[in-house]
Amino acid sequence: MRKPVSVVAIALAISFALLTTGCGGDDDSDASDATIAELATEYDWPANAPGSADLEAFAAAGGGEEPSPRTAVERANMCVWYSAWLAAQAGGAGDQAAIETYMADVIPSFEFVKDTPGAVENVQSVARSANDGDEAPVAAFVDANDCELLDS
């Protein structure tokens, strides 16, 4: 049974929802010529990176203004890592400690996280919650960001 969603989880979901509608993040000029699939190769993934079609559908699903390619890939990367953590938490495959390390050490350095006020602190809080075994903030992010679009 999932624990009640915390205020931090709600704040995190709102921060990232604002980004997907074009509010709060800078446009990524160095990625303007790069495709989402090319950018995906710059990131580590807990398994294979989602396919190009899945990444592009995920980027377009936010409603409103489409995010920059880098923002879309970073958000997708968070989704895949957070989903992997939830699967490992439920007893599935995956190195939970390695996933938690990525959540704590890598995700806070993502450009769109650093560019969104309060997002670094929110991401760090989610990582601490995950390390404590609290799935509510992770599940709130996965639910709020349509991460299931990357499951195919």
Explain what you see.
There is one protein chain. The chain is mainly α and 152 residues long. It contains eight helices and no strands. It has helices spanning 7-20, 36-40, 52-60, 69-89, 96-105, 111-114, 119-131, 136-144. The protein starts with 6 loop residues before the first helix and ends in an 8-residue tail after the last helix. Mean pLDDT is 80; it is low at 1-5, 7-11 and 17-33.
Which labels suit this protein?
152 residues, mainly alpha, 8 helices, disordered N terminus
How do you describe this structure in short?
The chain has 152 residues and is mainly alpha-helical. The chain contains eight helices and no strands.
Percentage of β-strand residues: under 5%
| Contiguous runs where pLDDT drops below 50 for at least 5 residues | 1-5, 7-11, 17-33
* Largest sheet features: none
- Structural class of the secondary elements? mainly alpha
